[in-house]
Amino acid sequence: MPIVVKLDDLLHDRRMTLTELADRVGMTLANLSILKTGKARAVRFSTLEAICEALSCQPGDLLGFETSRKRSAAR
Amino acid sequence: MSKPAPSSAALPIAFVVLRILIILNWLGGAAIAVLLLVMPHEEWIMKALKLSGSPDARTVLLGLRAVAVLGLVTIPLNYGILKRLLAIVGTVRAGDPFVAENAQRLQAIAWALLAVQILSMVVGAIGTSISSPAHPIHLNAGFSINGWLAVLLTFLLARVFAVGTVMRDDLEGTV
User: Fold this and answer.
1) B141/A75 Cα distance (integer angstroms)
2) Interface confidence: ipTM more than 0.95
3) Contact A44 B175 (CB under 8 A)
4) Would the CB atoms of A40 and B170 count as touching at under 8 Å?
C-alpha cells in the first residue's frame, strides 16, 4: 500500500515505546502493532485523534503517501 | 472490539435438533424406499387402500408411485439443507459466523429449499389429480406461502452473509 505509517519515527523522536503509547491511547498492543507495521487497512478518526493527542502531532506527521516508483527507488 | 455474544441455549439445542432431524430424514427415506419396494405388490396396496375393483385403481397406484419417487428425491435435498445448517451452527458456536463459506452454504440451502417447494407443488398436483370422491387422497403438499417465503428469506440471508463477510474483513484490518 502506498500509504506509509510513520509511527516508528514518531515514537523514536518522543522516546516512547509502543507499550506506553498503547496505555495512553487505550488501544491493544496488537492493534497498534498492526498500525505500526503498515498492515492496517483502515484507521478510525478516534484512533487517529488519540494517537495525535498522545504524541502531540498532526495526522500528516503520522501518515505519508509514497508512490510505488519512489518505494522501489528506496529499495 | 466487539463484545462476545451472550451464551445461549439455542445453539446446543439447534445442534441436537438438527442431528435428530438428519437421522429422521434418513429413516423417512428408508420408509419411502420400503414403500417403493412393496409397491409392485399391487394387490396388497389395493387391499390396504380399499381400491380393489375400482376403475381408477391403476391411476391411483401410478400416482402414489410417482409421489414416493419424488419423496425419495427430497431426502438428499433435505440432507443437504440440514448438513449445511449444522455447519452454520458450528461456525456460530465457534464465534465466527460471518465467513464466505456460510454465505455459500445459505445460497445452496436456498436453492435446495426452492427445489423442495417445486417438488411439493408437483406432489400436490399429483395428489389432486388422483383423488376422487370415491377415494379421496389428502397429501400434505402443494403451494405453501410460508415455504416460498422461506426460500426468499434464505436467498436474502445468503446475500446478507456475503455482504457481512466483506464488511467483517474490512473491520478486521481497521484499527
Assistant:
1) 70
2) no
3) yes
4) no
